[in-house]
From TrEMBL:
Name of this protein: Small-conductance mechanosensitive channel
Pfam family, one: MS_channel_3rd
Main subcellular location: membrane
Subcellular location: Cell membrane
Stretch list, region Disordered: 758-802
Species assigned in the record: Jannaschia seohaensis
InterPro entries reported in the protein's UniProt record: LSM_dom_sf (IPR010920), MS_channel_C (IPR049278), MscS-like_channel (IPR052702), MscS_beta-dom_sf (IPR023408), MscS_channel_2nd (IPR006685), MscS_channel_C_sf (IPR011066), MscS_channel_CS (IPR006686), MscS_channel_TM-2 (IPR011014)
Keyword presence, Membrane: yes
GO MF term list: mechanosensitive monoatomic ion channel activity
Length: 802
């Protein structure tokens, strides 16, 4: 029998897909369409009924969406075969009969396969349209309910009925709770279940009243090292979470004892769920307040609030938790009791009035702390957040209760309660982000650097982004609306014939990343294993490595575009139009790029070359696509566009090899034997180990200078980079040898004629008429035209300028 049922289920499960492949729409879909149309046209359809209808339509849409891709492989194959036959002959032309028959057969088979796809496409569009109509109807109903005005809660006439409704509900609850104790059967049940009831009550009492004391010992051991140990902070957080959950479990045990005792009824069923939820909300609000405003002064606060105001912040958080739990209870009870539903406005007004005052006080606290941080020069992002959040709470604290007071109960509660939930979610995000940073610090053992590290910062940012749907749900966005947005996001959007979707982007990123890593791997193998075994110089090696990188990245980009299914043919016209404008705007960039390619191919310069271009002289340190980096002898990096290296005049001192010529001028006194000087200089130059003997050094007698006989030493060095050092060493050797040979190196002498010698002594000019000099004036004088020898002043010491 079981096997027969399994076979029947298998047949039923496969019937619909087979019918879809045959092009037939399941008959059940017609009935669903008719029922959906009737519900949408009914003016009394409830939101719950519409949501149920939408779920049904969503399931059918998913089935049709899957059916749209049926036989996709075979369809692609047939289309390829048809394209291989060539274009259809135009009018007046013919093709061989065999080809025509084959083309007709392929088209017939293709049309047969396209029938289920087209049917599924039509059904998909129908389901999608019905879903859109359902969403519009639901949003319209929600909007009408949101802006509906009820009786004024501030009217004193409405207060006595509200009190009677609440007292009546509690009376009904007490009747259902005490019913097991009043009936004989209930007392018998209590006797039978007494042990279970007692155990549940004991567990509830212990968890609610004593669980905090049990965990205090663990908290006290971790508190002293909290400031320095991230593991201690994580442990304290875990202890606080357990301390939050245990009383909730106790409330569950307490309400469960009522059920075991035999209490039953709709109110009992509501209380069994509502009491643990309300207790959890209050405890969670108290826990979040402790995290945002920690009681210990040495614990850093989640919000930058001074220690003096933390106690007030915790009190406000607890008050918000209590009022939110009461508001939730009022709404839950009102959904099951008509009298409480009529009194809902008065009850919500009383609760939201306290909530609004609490939000006002909390907003003033945050606003004052934000202003204090700004006045103290700590106007960071948190100070701005505090001020903005404080202003928002002030507005909500006034507007929400005011709207409820004038009868807009739904609108007022839709502003106040989401604000409270948003505050709790913000604090929870901050707590989770701190957990990420502490976990990273515990793993890496870098407590001080954890908050500046990139990895935990990215995770914290992703947590904030992931909370966006939660904020949307809090502020009234339906879950179905979020899923519809997500489906639209996954489907992507079309740009011409190209559809851009997250799947395409992920495929492109993954393929390009793999291609890039493969390029880096090949480049590393060439650099470390292959090219060192060749006879290529450094420039050739770098050119091959750069070319490999460019080719690999280009191939990776092309493969990524192909694998992602991106069709760029539709962008050809746009690219052609843009290329004209970009050709003018990016002319220099393109010119530098082409010049960089030419530099890599021709290699007129390479890494490590000593070049001079445009008044800049130094060593080539990097050749990129757009520019070349030259390091001057002053250790300054100069970025030279590649176009300047191609179009301008470049002096490369090390292009062919490292050899280069050095020039050393030498002057001797008149009367010195020039042949002897030439021989000495030749001997000194040829003796230096860096001087090449082929070609041999050349010593020339340049001429008769104003103060000396001028010689010039020309020598080719093995390594031109030693040019300055070799010149210095040869000059030292010349000075030592000339001193030993008695050859004088002349220096310039000058005769200075003073036309006003009195200015040298600082004496006033002699007055006309021969007025005698005053007593105390120097008596030594110089006649005009009398020569005086003044020694040359030593040159000032060289100063290093920045």
């Amino acid at each position: 029998m079981i096997r027969l049922l399994a076979a029947l289920l298998l047949v039923v499960a496969t019937a619909l897909p087979l019918a879809a492949e045959d092009g037939a729409i399941p008959p059940e879909w017609t009935g669903v369409q008719q029922r959906a149309t009737a519900v949408l046209q009914s003016p009394i359809a409830s939101e719950e009924a519409l949501n149920t209808l939408r779920d049904t339509l969503d399931g059918w849409r998913a089935r049709f969406d899957e059916a749209r891709g049926a036989n996709a492989g075979r369809i692609a194959t047939l289309r390829g075969e048809i394209e291989a036959l060539g274009p259809v002959p135009v009018e007046g032309e013919s093709e061989p009969a065999e080809v025509a028959d084959l083309r007709a057969d392929l088209r017939r088979r293709l049309d047969e396969l396209l029938v289920p796809q087209r049917a599924a496409e039509a059904a998909y569009n129908a389901a999608n349209g019905l879903i859109d109509e359902t969403d519009e109807r639901i949003e319209q109903m929600r909007s009408e309910a949101l802006f509906r005005q009820d009786a004024l809660p501030i009217n004193p006439v409405a207060w006595p009925p509200a009190l009677l409704a609440v007292s009546g509900w509690f009376s009904d609850l007490s009747v259902q709770v005490t019913a097991p104790f009043l009936s004989k059967g209930g007392r018998a049940s209590l006797t039978d279940e007494g042990l279970r009831i007692g155990l549940l009550l004991v567990v509830a009492a212990l968890l609610i009243l004593r669980s905090g004391r049990w965990l205090n010992a663990a908290r006290d051991r971790l508190t002293p090292i909290e400031a320095t140990s991230p593991l201690a902070r994580l442990g304290l957080l875990g202890v606080s979470v357990v301390r939050l959950l245990l009383p909730v479990v106790g409330l569950v045990a307490l309400t469960r004892s009522l059920v075991v005792a035999g209490a039953e009824g709709p109110l009992i069923d509501l209380i069994v769920i509502l009491v643990p939820v309300m207790g959890g909300i209050v405890l969670a609000a108290n826990w979040l307040g402790g995290q945002a405003f920690p009681p210990r002064p040495d614990t850093p606060s989640l919000l930058p609030v001074g220690e003096a105001r933390r106690r007030e912040g915790r009190l406000h958080a607890l008050t918000l938790g209590v009022t939110f739990a009461l508001g939730l209870a009022v709404q839950a009870v009102a959904d099951t009791d008509a009298a409480v539903m009529d009194a809902r406005g008065v009850l919500h007004f009383a609760i939201t009035l306290v909530t609004g005052l609490t939000l006002l006080r909390l907003g003033q606290l945050l606003l004052s702390e934000g202003r204090s941080a700004r006045d103290e020069g700590e106007a960071g992002i948190w100070a701005q957040v505090l001020r903005m959040l404080g202003r928002a709470l002030l507005v909500v604290g006034v507007v929400g209760p005011a709207l409820i007071a004038v009868g807009f109960v739904n609108l007022g509660t839709a502003i106040v309660w989401p604000t409270v939930l948003s505050l709790g979610l913000l604090v929870l995000i901050g707590v989770l982000q701190n957990v990420v940073f502490d976990f990273y610090a515990a793993i890496t053992r870098r407590t001080e650097m954890a908050r500046d590290a990139l990895a935990p910062t990215l995770v914290a940012f992703l947590l904030a982004v992931a909370a966006v749907p939660a904020f949307a749900l809090i502020w009234g966005v339906r879950w179905h609306t979020l899923t519809e947005w997500w489906r639209t996001f996954l489907d992507g959007f079309s740009i011409g014939a190209f559809t851009l979707s997250p799947a395409n982007l992920l495929t492109f990123a993954a393929v390009f990343a793999l291609g890039f890593l493969a390029t880096r791997l090949v480049r590393g193998v060439l650099r470390t294993s292959v090219l060192p075994k060749t006879k290529l110089d450094v420039g050739g090696t770098n050119a091959i490595l750069s070319g490999t990188s460019y080719i690999g990245i280009t191939v990776a980009a092309l493969l990524a575009v192909t694998m992602a299914g991106i069709d760029l043919s539709g962008l050809a016209i746009v690219a052609g139009a843009l290329s004209v404008g970009l050709g003018f705007g990016l002319q220099n960039i393109v010119q530098n790029f082409v010049s960089g390619i030419i530099l890599l191919i021709e290699r007129p310069i390479k890494l490590g070359d000593w070049v001079a271009v445009g008044g800049i002289e130094g060593f080539v340190r990097e050749i990129s696509v757009r520019s070349t980096r030259i390091e001057t002898f002053d250790r300054q990096d100069v970025i030279v566009p590649n176009a300047d290296l191609i179009a301008g005049v470049v002096t490369n001192n090390t292009l062919g090899d490292m050899s280069g010529r050095v020039l050393i001028p030498v002057g001797v006194a008149y009367g010195t034997d020039t042949r002897k000087v030439e021989a000495i200089l030749r001997e000194i130059v040829e003796a230096h180990p860096m001087v090449m003997l082929n070609p041999a050094p050349v010593i020339t007698f340049e001429g008769f200078g104003a103060d000396s006989l001028d010689f010039l030493c020309r020598a080719v060095l093995r390594d031109v980079l030693w040019k300055v050092i070799v010149r210095s060493e040869i000059n030292h050797a010349i000075a030592e040898r000339f001193a030993a040979e008695g050859i004088e190196i002349p220096f310039a002498q000058r005769d200075v004629w003073l036309r006003n010698p009195e200015a040298l002594r600082g004496t006033p000019p002699r007055p006309v008429g021969g007025t005698p000099a005053r007593q105390g004036d120097p008596q030594e004088t110089l006649e005009p035209g009398e020569p005086i020898d003044i020694p040359d002043r030593p040159d000032p010491p060289e100063m290093d300028h920045p």
